Prior knowledge:
Order of helices and strands of chain B: HHHHEEEHHHHEHHH
Order of helices and strands of chain A: EEEHEEHEHHHHEHEHEEHH
Number of domains of chain A: 2
Strand content of chain B: under 5%
Shape of chain A: globular
Largest interface: A-B, 38 and 22 residues
CATH architecture of the largest domain in chain A: 3-Layer(aba) Sandwich
Helix content of chain B: over 70%
Largest sheet of chain A: 6 strands, mixed
Structural class of chain A: alpha/beta
Strand content of chain A: 15-25%
CATH topology of the largest domain in chain A: Rossmann fold
Oligomer: heterodimer
Amino acid sequence: MLELSGLSKHFGGVRAVDGVNLKVGRGDIVGLIGPNGSGKSTIVNLICGLFPPTAGNVLLAGKDITSLPTHIRVGMGIARTFQNIRLFGQLSVWQNLWVAQNSDQHRKDGSFLKRWLGAPGAARAEIDRTLEFFNLEKKRDELAANLSFGEQRRLEMARALAANPSLLLLDEPAAGMNAEEIEQLDERIRTLRKTGITILLIEHHMELVMAVTDRVAVLNFGQKIADGGPAEIQANPQVREAYLGSSNVK
Amino acid sequence: MIDFVQTTVDGVMVGCSYGLLAIGFTLIFGVIRRLNLSYGPSIMVGAYLGTFLYVQFGAGPLLVAVAVVAGAAIAGIYVERLCFAPMKGGAGVASMVSSFAIWMQLEQAMILLLPRHTYAFPALATGAPWEFGPFTLRPDQLLMLILAIATGIIVNTIIYRTRFGTGLRLVTSNQIAAHLVGVNVRNVMLGAFALASAVGGFAGFLVLAIDQQVTPMFGMWATIKGLIAMMIGGLGSVPGAIAGGLVLGVIEAHAQGLVGPQARDLTAYLLLFLCLVLRPGGLFGKAPEADGAFSSRST
């Protein structure tokens, strides 16, 4: 589904991502972990094309998308959430989903009339279902800016799913959440797994990563230092050292 | 009292075109969060093309209007490609400085096209002023008011009722998130410059048609009036731009009535000064969103 080969991104002299190879199969849920500053978010930005890589390629379903602009990649089925939330604050909850879904409708059926008439009935029902799944149906007419932090996190994930993506990139979805919210996130990811969607999960919360992923890749200083099943990663001495090392520095 | 009402009405008429100038400015500012100093000169390019057609070929007001709007839109696209498209995010100061350079370039190019200091510009409508009791109303000013309101409604429809307008609002709200819901941000920015410059061009046409003359100072004049009206109304706000334009127009008209024409521009700057001291965000403004268009990308 997703393949990164020799992917590098240098900011000046800093090698934020340095020759990373990673394969994510269709329907897999893969975790990407590593200490702060190890290049996880940079990889997500490279996958969705917010900036070009210094070297290497990004392949989606076997197709090289390295030089495509972001909106085309979104049209090909990539969606993501952000570590620091980026919603359309002046739009309502429902509208936030609608604009995301509309890009999807446009992709499937670019008829001129539909663009002007807005979301047809079936699409509206789909938005309502997504809102219900994220327990946001009571907030549908609130402005996104007025939601609580936890609700905004859920709305961001709902918006990402509204476009009906085949690859979902979650950038620290549990950051700032309490135990109960993380439990709900865990359940939602498990439910999503059944729909066959592919997920790349970037997360610091190890319990969540170990519970929901099929495979985990570990980054340190921009390089991949391990890749394997959750149990295997937990036992890996190199991984332990990377994490302990970073906490010693702090 | 009669003078006061008459002056206020005159001020509203002029204020409408200031409002349109400010709408164009505010659209660009909302999308790129940078000042486009070449905004006025882009309008001047259109104005000079229209004047050229009028002076050389005796074109009528309608054709001149089309030429002014088209010329301004094309100049706006040129400015976006040259100054703003290549500067990704961080290099905002470079964009502003280069838009200042393009200001000079556009102005000088137009002076080469029409080198005299003053040229005649076609009138919007001719006819004697109508009299309503003690009040008078010039038909061309009334027509300007109607056209300005119609333009405002059209712009509002484009922003709130079309796919392009939705994209524009998304980019204004959060540029990176707009990328991620499939908006072609590059095209939206280009469209925003074209739309804004076209609206500004139409405002310029209305103003010039009332004055019936054009000078090389018009580009700077349009930048300054649009900028002041936008800042009084609040950066990035369309209703604010209209309100700012009306306030500016009415107060300028009263200053001219009470003190004389020399007080006009002085009052405009004084108004801007007071606004910046007392209400820096403008009438309708609020502080720019913390997670606005150009917050850091690499986290």
